[in-house]
Amino acid sequence: MTRERLAGLSEELLHKLADKLDVDIPDDAEVGGLVDLVSDALEEARADHNESNNNAMRVEERKYELARFFSEKDLTPVNDDENDLPERYNETRMHLMVRDPAWAFCYWDVRDEQLVSVTADPEFEELILRIVEMDSLSFDDHTVVDSFEIPVRLNDKSRYINLPRQDTSYYTELTALCGDRHISICRSNPISVPRGGLPDVVSHANAVDDRKDRVLALSGLEQLGVPRFGSEIPGRIISLIDRYAGNE
Amino acid sequence: MKYGSVMLLLHAHLPFVRHPEHDSFLEEMWLFEAISETYLPILGMLDRLERDDVSGSFCMSFSPTLVSMLTDELLQNRYIAHLDRLIELGHKERERTMADPEFAQPAAMYLDMYSRCRTAFVDTYDRDIIARFRHHAETGRIQAITTLASHPFAPMYQDSDAAIRVQIQVAIHEHAAVFGKRPRGFWLPECGYYPGIEDLFDEFGITFFFVAAHGLLFGEEPAECGVYAPVQCSNGVLAFGRDMASANAVWSESEGYPGDPEYREFYRDIGHDLPIDYIAPYIHLQSERINTGYKYYAITGKTDQKRPYLPARASEKAVSHAENFLFKQVRQCRIVGPLIDNVPVIVCPYDAELFGHWWFEGVQWLEALFRRAHQAAIADEDWVEFVTPQGYMQTHNGFQVLDPVLSSWGNKGYGEVWLDGSNDWVYRHTHKAVERMIDLVKRYPNETGLKQRALNQAAREVLLSQASDWPFIIRSGTAVSYAEARVKEHIRNFTHIYDSLSGGMISTEWLTRVERRNNCFADIDYRLFGRP
């Protein structure tokens, strides 16, 4: 959206956009000043967003860039109640999704009657989200390796979970803490979390296989744009990257 | 001497956007821009390479939603009307810039370009550009493959085999309907792989797909050939790993070729620059400034003082960048070749719409690649061969058995673009819709007539709600309201059918309206959701 276009917007819309962009508006700001502030904030937001993207995402966004960043349509979304979806489906379920080696996302819902019943327990204290690490992706044949708990509010419906370990499996469980009892309400599907780094045999190799190391060095390890959750690239491979792949 | 192969993959995709209920609709221009700037230029290139008998081939994936739009009569007619407006603007621009030689040249270029687009689209290809791509697939110049039907980010649905299985089945069916044969390979939307999807590929005769580089490199065992040879999953399906160096050379706006000062500046468009009275007939609703496609400046550098765009100079640069790219591929293959047990293949997947749209000279660069590689092969200089996956697989074997790991080409390599605070609400609804659709098949296993139509439309709506484009756009901040509305519309349409069937009442009028509007995947059979 250009400065010219901003100048053509009503003061109400400018304030709405300023709110959306978290712009502090001085009490005595006139329309011209407001336009400047919003315009600068838009440019800054655009630059920050662009910076957060890798090359593939930047290119992909160009496909949809007819207007510049915010279009007027986004300032005046269709106020159509019919278009809204239910916040929940009044069922008891929990779904766990792996986002990357460090984070998972969990959403859940508890049937009204069940929640009433659980909270009616005289010893009910709070709902607990249990994150359980297990040694297998199968519920039929697993051993709990570790677990930790996060208290959640009655009206919480989702949560991002920072995963302590990679190359393992997790599930989550919603429980009600009633005195010293944990009453299980629902359990999620299991997820498998990737290692997020080179195989151990590469990271901790004692005997160096120069040929294989050179292939890895040439495979763009330093350009992946992927955080490493396991070991760093071994020094012996970094030196090969400098030698073979960095000779542009 | 030939040192290796380069496997170029262009992924052509746009989400299904079709609004017959409006006379014109802003987001339909995504398609029109891509036809003019990317698909027709690529076809023109293929036709010229064929005419001149230039060797070399590449892979193209066509998303079923894109194919559906390209073969849709309403959108074809609207595209022609869109071109007519641009040609009219071009005539006005020729007049306006006549006294200004610096801008007269690019203005004339655009008028010529859009006029040629019209001739090609209407006269040469008879509006059916997919048919021409099919011709090039039949002659082997491209290998046409497909992707998941509505382009979902697969890892978000990895707990539902049914969801992904239907996406694969519908995609294969849609592909075979227009290309005349089933695809052998798959492009995973956003290069989003999760372990196990290869079992579904195998089930449907898919023999290869592509993964991000770390999808191979971070596997259980070291990838012995790095990204320079595919790996064979445990079930025999091949996974080709993306090469990062060649990706960055073409994607990066700062260090890659598209950022060269001579190339056309994407962000300066007369839709934003010229007085509103003049440009009004050619922008949205005659009031909202949008890109028109007429862009007169060169990138120049990090300055607001842009130089006028000189097409001839930019074309020369595209050729020189193609030579540089080829030089680097030859060099890479020469270094890697002696280190691995196979002839190295460098896998370069790109969004097709990068070429011509954002990187305006991108198609010229592509054509120069093929022509220079062809000349080098004839002269027996140091060269690399452009191959399709099928061509490569016919002549190479003995690949390492290694299962890839969860990965994508998104930010930081996994799923954070499609699952963050702005868009995570989507999945509660799309997952629920899949679950309910499976339930519907159990309840109505063998319907006919109106109920069958309703169930088929329900299946369409479930698929359309899963498109990765909507969470992507919601996060990007460009057309948020539209993307949110689309997810809600499809879930709401599905739920309406779900509730109506439960109540035993379906409005024929409502159903017909929704069928006409969301008319992709014409032959879908809702029972697919019930098959193991």
Describe, in short, the structure shown.
The complex is a heterodimer of chains A (248) and B (532). Chain A is an alpha+beta fold. Chain A has helices at residues 3-7, 11-20, 31-52, 55-63, 72-75, 112-119, 200-203, 210-218, 235-245; strands at residues 93-98, 103-109, 124-134, 144-152, 158-162, 168-178, 181-187, 191-193.
Evaluate the radius of gyration of chain A.
Answer: 26 Å
In DSSP terms, counting alpha (H) and pi (I) runs of 4 or more, how many helices of chain A? 9
Strand segment tally of chain B: 9
Fold-level CATH name of the largest domain in chain B: 7-stranded beta/alpha barrel
**String of helices and strands of chain B:** EHEHHHHEHEHEHEEHHHHEHEHHHHHH
User: What level of helicity do the residues of chain A show?
Assistant: 25-40%
DSSP helical segment count of chain B: 19
Q: Roughly what fraction of the amino acids of chain B lie in strands?
A: 5-15%
Main sheet record of chain A: 5 strands, antiparallel
SSE ordering of chain A: HHHHHEEHEEEEEEHHH
SSE-based structural type of chain A: alpha+beta
Descriptive keywords:
heterodimer; A: 248 residues; alpha+beta; Immunoglobulin-like; 3 domains; five-stranded antiparallel β-sheet; three-stranded antiparallel β-sheet; 9 helices; 24% strand; B: 532 residues; alpha/beta; 7-stranded beta/alpha barrel; immunoglobulin/albumin-binding domain-like; 2 domains; nine-stranded mixed β-sheet; 19 helices; 9% strand; globular
